[in-house]
What does this fold into?
Amino acid sequence: MVQCTKCKDHAHPDCIDMTIAMTHEIKRYDWSCIECKVCTVCEKPDNEEKMMCCDKCDRGYHTFCVGLKAAPNGRWFCEKFCSKQRR
It folds into this structure.
């Protein structure tokens, strides 16, 4: 089970489409569920339609906060924590 550090809700990783590798990764920081997630850059929860999550660490980012016009197709890794580690 994983637990949101903000609302304290629990979820089974399979039920929220979280891989085993990501489950290990989110234990390294104060993880937030999708309902509590904020942008890692601006720390705001708004503009949900522009929010995307890193495919390695599950941190949230607004597309415009990372210099993108739209979410990329396929997998995306955040530069701040994961882009150098993904290989």
